[in-house]
Amino acid sequence: xxxxxxxxxxxxxxxxxxxxxxxxxxxxxxxxxxxxxxxxxxxxxxxxxxxxxxxxxxxxxxxxxxxxxxxxxxxxxxxxxxxxxxxxxxxxxxxxxxxxxxxxxxxxxxxxxxxxxxxxxxxxxxxxxxxxxxxxxxxxxxxxxxxxxxxxxxxxxxxxxxxxxxxxxxxxxxxxxxxxxxxxxxxxxxxxxxxxxxx
Length: 199
Prior knowledge:
The protein is of the alpha/beta class and 199 residues long. The chain has one domain (4-108, 124-197): Flavodoxin domain (Rossmann fold). It contains seven helices and seven strands; from the N terminus they run βαβααβαβββααβα. It has helices at 19-33, 54-59, 64-75, 92-101, 140-146, 150-160, 181-197; strands at residues 4-9, 37-42, 78-84, 108-109, 122-123, 129-135, 168-173. α1 links the parallel β1 and β2. α1 (19-33) packs parallel to α7. The longest helix is centred in the C-terminal third of the chain and has 17 residues, at 181-197.
């Protein structure tokens, strides 16, 4: 069945030569061909300030681009988040956009009564699914098994699962600078296939 899909392209460089943008394009091509509804947001095009303190995060008004992104996330049934691995995690601009977006009362809400010890906020994005796509220079197995994929787990467990998103797929694409054109073409076709399935 057709799904409502939001693609969040997290590379801070807007130049189309970046492989993350090609992956987003390929996923969008497959999804559109299969009849899914699509929205796309490029982090590189969002001019938003970094949050400076907890009070601003909790009570400040989100900038207009962030309010539009929140609307897109609320609309979507499936989120596709694509970013390059920088210093073991996502780029700072991408992180800043997520901090602005997932403020209290958008993605989660505190329990109605005083929380018990260890109780987590209620995720308000239940029922949605996600796919995280990460590109990197190192082999993906090295990142996963030796480094523990900490940047991926931080987003998956520390953000998306806490917001109520349960089914999260992963695509780790290693050796992007040395794998050759044929390997890149294979990954682009995989992304088209995932787009067709809305996965």
